[in-house]
Amino acid sequence: MTETLTILTINPGSTSTKIAVFADETRLFERKVDHSAADLAPFDTIGDQFAMRKAAIVAALKEEGFDLASLAAVAGRGGKLPPLKRGAYVVNDDMVEFLRHRPIDQHASNLGALIAYDVAAPLGIPAFIYDAVVVDEMDDIARFSGVPQLTRRASCHVLNMRAMAIKVLKRDGIRLEDANVVVCHMGGGVTATVISGGRMIDVLSDEEGPFSPERAGRVPCRQLVDLCFSKDYDRKSATKLMRGVGGLVAYLGTNSALEVEARIDRGDAEADLVYRAMAYQIAKGIGELSTVVMGKVDRIVLTGAIAHSKRMTDLVVERVKFIAPVEIVPGENELEALAAGTLRVLRGEEAPNVFVAPPRPATAARDRSRMAHA
Ligand SMILES: Nc1ncnc2c1ncn2[C@@H]1O[C@H](COP(=O)(O)OP(=O)(O)O)[C@@H](O)[C@H]1O
Ligand SMILES: CCCC(=O)OP(=O)(O)O
Predict the structure, then answer these.
(1) Structure-derived torsion over alpha carbons of residues 265, 269, 271, 275, reported in degrees to the nearest 10
(2) Can you provide one Gene Ontology molecular function annotated for this UniProt record (predicted)?
């Protein structure tokens, strides 16, 4: 008989931390801790949230009476590393150093690998990330921004988007490789992608797409430059305005779409307009990505926690249903997808990738200078 593989999965999101423990494919339990805008306000950077999020996880495991000694591996959501391939990566010292000291961007997913490693290392078991948010399969034509100094980067809810697209198509007997699907995940962040031939050939990341509960999304760039050079903002506060206190938080003071809906129900006209604007931008994003495959879209998939909202999905569907049939798959499959990927690695069915950190900028400059003088 083969030994049961027990896996702790950790998904730090912008407005919550979700964990689950799996024994092989069976979920033993799942816990979600919400983090309101007020809870997160005292933290300057995502790194500063490490202790608070880890404590929430440890407390949840304790309440479940779970014994960490039974774990075979820990899997965390993969964060803002340089562009990665799809699939598993071992969390190694290079990855920990990179995420701690020079992540590409501020996002809660950066804590996935860090907390997974922190739990796994003392137990002498491996930690992995799987289908990180920075998986990059974009076509070259999609990389242009308009200035050579700025390159478009893929960053989206990879884990859930692929899992939900596969689920929707499988039901109709279609393989992901044989379809064009536009997927939009609506959570604390909102991102979208167009998957064609099994690859995410273009992505509307959370800095180029719709605004979301806690993110600004695409903003008028000239005004952003002015704002950054005004006396009112420095690097930290301008970054936080884009991610953390943008979107619904900036307009309405909450990162909770549920609370916004409650305000609308009470007759709040401002909340209603902002929420409809978010839906409008989401629909425009889906339209934009549909042009990538010349409008030949087989399915549009709306997913993420906000896809539970009929109010939101109705607002989006009415604008995009002319493009393709719309499938609504609320919630997310991220913890299951993390566990499934990790099981494949532990069973030897998939080889994990090894992350090698790019040289630090100072080291890179020194190396270039050495080469120039060699
Ligand atoms: N049933 C629901 N209807 C509308 N919005 C919801 C619902 N459930 C959760 N949300 C909203 O979804 C957002 C959080 O999405 P989620 O994917 O869980 O978080 P995270 O991005 O932190 O992982 C919050 O704004 C929350 O209020
Ligand atoms: C970086 C894209 C992923 C994202 O926005 O995740 P959350 O919705 O969990 O913040």
Answers:
(1) 90
(2) ATP binding
